[in-house]
Amino acid sequence: MKTGILDQALTIYQDLSKELTLNGLCGKVIELAKSKTIAEKVAVIINDSGNFILKASGLRGKDDISFFESNHLAHADQLPLNVIKQLVSSKNPVAVDLSKVGDKIKADEYIKKSAPSFLNFIPLRVEEELIGFLMLEQTQEVNVTAESLKFIQVIAPQIAILIQNLSKSTPPATSNDKKASPKEGILSKEDLVTLGEIGQVIATTSSVGEMVETVYNKINSIVDAQFLDIGVLNKKEQRLEFPGSFEDGERLPFNFCSLKEENRLATLCFNTRRTVFINDFNKEITNYLPNYVNTAPRIGKKVQSIIYVPIMDKDSVIGVMTVQSSKTNAYTESDVYLVKSLSSYLAIAIDNFQLSKQSKVKDETHLITTKKQEEQLSRAYTTLKSLGEIGQDITSNLSIERIAYTAYESLNNLIDAPLFSIGIYNKDRAVMDIIANIENGEKLPPKAISLDDENKLSILCFKTLKEIVINDLISEYSQHLPNAKLNTDNPDSLPQSVIYLPLIGKEGTLGFITVQNYKLNAFADTDLNVLRNIAIYIGIALDNALTYEGLEEVVSERTAELQQQKNELEENKDKIEQSYKNVQLLSDIGLTLSSSLSTDSVIETVYENVNSLMDATTFGIGIYSHRKQHIEFIGAIEKGKRLPEFIHQMNDESKLSAICLRDNKEIVISDITAEMHNYINEGGKIEQTVGEMPYSIIYLPLRTKEKLIGVITVQSFKKNSYSDLQVNLLRNIAVLSAIAIDNAVQYEKIERQKEELQSTSQKITQSIKYAKQIQGAILPNRTYIKNILPDSFIFHKPKDIVSGDFFWFHESNKRVFVATVDCNSNGVPGAMMSIIGTSLFREIVEVRNITSPDEILDAMNERITVHLNQKINDNQDSLDISLCVIDKKNNTLEFAGANTSMARIIDGKFYIIKGTPASIGGNEEDETSFNKHTFSLDDDAEYFLFTDGYHKQIGGERKEAYGNERFMKMLFNNKGVDMSKKRTAVRRAFNDWMDDELVQTDDVLVLGFKANE
Fold first, then answer.
1. What's the DSSP call for residue 318?
2. CB 373: neighbour CB atoms within 10 A?
3. Do domains 396-544 and 779-1010 have the same CATH topology?
4. How many CB atoms lie within 10 A of CB 460?
5. Vertex 984, ends 978 and 988: CA angle to 5°?
6. Which of 264, 323, 272 lies closest to 295, judged by CA?
7. What are phi and psi of 479, to 5 degrees?
8. Which CATH architecture describes the domain 569-749?
9. Rounded to the nearest 5 degrees, what angle is found at the Cα of 43, between the Cα atoms of 39 and 49?
10. What does the alpha-carbon distance between residue 482 and residue 770 come to, in Å, rounded to a whole number?
């Protein structure tokens, strides 16, 4: 429960506990229900052994409350008995919509007579005993809210206890107001008055010691209490503690007695719940303590007359009360009855002390929780930093096995995971290969799991792509595998906490990763998030590794082809040997390229290797840009020298590179002069952008399965420079190059984004921290605002951490100044403008003593223009201001607005008070004079100042602005409720409108108040 709600409930309970009569209590309960809900009728119903008594009822709008003094059972037309009797076992509030009930309920005599639309019942229980109901009735089509019912439910147990206590302790009335005989145990009217006074004073005490002194000072007027004490149970020490005994007007030292002491009247009274009544100690003590021996040292004088009564809270004993006298026969049955009655008030007061202590403990717990959250944020930052390094380690491996063990080594430093496994899907065998299986640091042999084994959590995770998180394996196993049975023969060997995550790659699900621990609830949410990040890194690394293995397969295929050629062409041994060397070179090239993470290094590596295989007098790799529709050649080389960068457009029919990539066509030319028209339309010619015109030309497209990468070209100034073998080698190099360039481009893009994000984040963080510190220092303190304007609320929600919307309050000479300001900038610029605005308000009002709102805005306009040099530069910063001056001396409220309006609600009507349609500052050329509106404080009106951020917020089903009209209706619909509830309504409407919208459109500020409080 929130601390604010608990504190409010405690205050209400303390107020209710001051009531000394059942009628008084019922009246306060009815008023409470009417103030906290929109109920039209409220009734208090008492349970009498399964039958029901209507004790009191009240109507909204009427101050009189009807009390039913007799204890006769309710008639059928007084209560909906057919409904109530069905709710006797309910422990929670029940709302009955009478438009949806059956004919039997509709035939109820009360329902036919009163024709309600809704009936709401809040059970009043003391533990399992039903004391009665609180009934809230509605004839309108709108029922009371669930939130208001929940609040009443919070205080319902305390109401039940108070009703129960007052029902038991209130003495029955005597006929003709005659004083009852003392033997009957009935208190006189004078005693009842004194008892009531004592009860009221007890309710205001804050400690047991203060309570003892209060009772002692009052009780001697109606009973001989020469000695008085109250003992309170200390559960931890199992003893009764007496913190403030009084004898003959003096406070005695603190003392206590163990609950195990059998030779004490206090422990006898407490343990047996028995009243002790002695008028001659020496003669009667053995009636209670047969084996009495005066062994315990006595605090105070020897007494002869004693009364001990237990103090009961619900059905539990929480202490004892005693009055004692040195006289014999000092007490009567009436005195016993009086002390018993007084003990019920003591029980309520002690219960209040305990509730207050619980509230303080919760506040201390909140502080501890906040500190823990700060520590968690620090750990989270360290973890994120480590994850970045781990990601680099994992993704730098091209071996699947090495990826798995690198992941384990990294993960073991962040998560306590004695059991760790990674499974990779083997498509050919339709199994899950467990490539890493580690238990308590020991590597276990690899194994395989069939995909047909539906009784494995790993297969379930892989097939459904679902995360599996288990904190108690034995109890939660069947939730995931309902048809499987867990082997629990040796439960100590079973892990109790288990996480399975799927490993996702470009082509789909690659496998799974799992961490397990022998302890229950071993993994926190932070551990799960760490594992998710590592699973992403593993997926990326496995993609790269599988791609690399694919390249090895391509190389293997080429090797087989070359081997076949060797068998067919044994006579050309030198050629075959050279081919083999070329294949080895391709393998080396593949390894080198796979570790290159920049486009320049890929191009350089390819050129060095191609130049060793063939005549590459001219060499180039062109990178395709889909957005710009051109091919960009960076680092092209001719005769050993780097050429300047150049571009070929994709629609240029004279460029062989464009034809090659656009048509996905290999271009192999041995003599450009003879073969040019095989590629260029007749009459056309090849344009050479950079360098000389070659004779032999090869252009090959670079592409992966998913996208176009570019082209690779080698050119020679000799005719017939390239053999089929060299063309084939270049094809293989093209495959390797395409993959390497794609990886490099993606890596460079990620690195750029990472650097940009880090730089931007650092700048923004520094700016916001500085601006937040400044703005926090200048804004008025909320406590100060409540002191000068008690009946008010502020809903302030910055778009960023700091805000361009701010509020200003000031009080002097019986005037209260209230302003809301909207700077035309958000974030840090807006925050800086708020500093200027606050400073100018202070200068104009506090130093220059200008008090009229229109004159303040005139002065503000002049000072902003001068302050920002707007007459001589193009600065257009401006402020929209709503300003009210509450003049308590003249009993008026004055309003002036700069490009703003004020809302006013009075007598159920809504008014918009428009300000002058001009902003403060902004380099306006025309002189502006601001208008003033004046209102009397005799009106019980509500006022609202606001900026335009609320209206602008995008949201709702249509993703549209909230709008001015909807905003005004929302304010009007919440007229008449407490300002704190009004703020809740404003906040809830805003959050509901945003819903899943991630971006707040503008700074938001809404300020509401009543000026005559």
1. E
2. 10
3. no
4. 18
5. 145
6. 264
7. -65, -30
8. 2-Layer Sandwich (3.30)
9. 140
10. 56
At the second CATH level, the architecture of 779-1010 is: 4-Layer Sandwich (3.60)
Handedness of CA 37, 43, 46, 47 (dihedral sign): negative
Amino acid at 912: I
Q: Is the separation of the CB atoms in 796 and 820 below 8 Å? A: no
Task: Judge if pTM exceeds 0.85.
Answer: no
The alpha carbon of residue 593 and the mean position of all alpha carbons in its chain are separated, in whole angstroms, by 48
Give the Cα separation of 915 and 903 in Å (integer).
11
* Confidence band, pLDDT 50/70/90 cuts, at residue 553: low
Residue type, 402: R
Asked if residue 791 lies in contact with residue 1013, where contact means CB atoms within 8 angstroms, the answer is yes
φ, ψ for residue 77, nearest 5 deg: -95, 0
Residue 840: CB atoms within 10 A of its CB come to 20
Residue ranges of alpha helices (H) inside 170-255 are: 189-203, 208-219
Residue 449 bridge partners (DSSP)? 432
φ/ψ of 230, rounded to 5, equals: -130, 125
Q: Which helix (H) or strand (E) holds 101?
A: none
Q: What are the residue ranges spanned by the domains of the chain? A: 3-169, 183-358, 396-544, 569-749, 779-1010
Virtual CA dihedral for 404, 410, 415, 418, nearest 10 degrees? 50
CATH superfamily of 183-358: GAF domain (3.30.450.40)
Question: Exposure string (b/e) for 232-269, b if CB count within 10 Å is 16 or more?
Answer: bbeeeeebbbbbbbbbeeeeeeebebebeeeebbbbbb
Q: Which numeric CATH code is attached to 3-169?
A: 3.30.450.40
Residue with the larger pLDDT of the pair 3 and 601: 601
| Crossing angle between the packed helical segments 573-594 and 599-613, to the nearest 10 degrees | 170
Residue 195 exposed, middle or buried by CB count within 10 Å (0-12, 13-18, 19+): buried
481: left (phi over 0), alpha (psi -120 to 50) or beta: beta
On the question of pLDDT at 102 being above 80, the answer is yes
| Angle at 14 (CA atoms; ends 12, 20), nearest 5 degrees | 110
Q: Strand pairing partners for 302?
A: none
Q: Is the pLDDT of residue 301 over 80?
A: no
> How far apart, in Å, do the first and last CA atoms of the chain sit?
31
The overall longest dimension of the chain from CA atoms, in Å, is 141
DSSP letter for each residue of 406-466: HHHHHHTTTS--SEEEEEEEETTTTEEEEEEEEETTEEPPPEEEETT-TT-HHHHHHHHT-
Q: Is residue 823 pLDDT above 70, yes or no? A: yes
- Tell me, which fold does domain 396-544 have in CATH? Beta-Lactamase (3.30.450)
Q: Note whether 617 and 716 are within 8 A (CB).
A: yes
Q: Are 298 and 274 in contact (CB under 8 A)?
A: no
- With a cut of 50, say whether residue 853 has pLDDT above it: yes
Q: Which of 378-382, 620-624, 926-930 has the lowest mean pLDDT?
A: 378-382
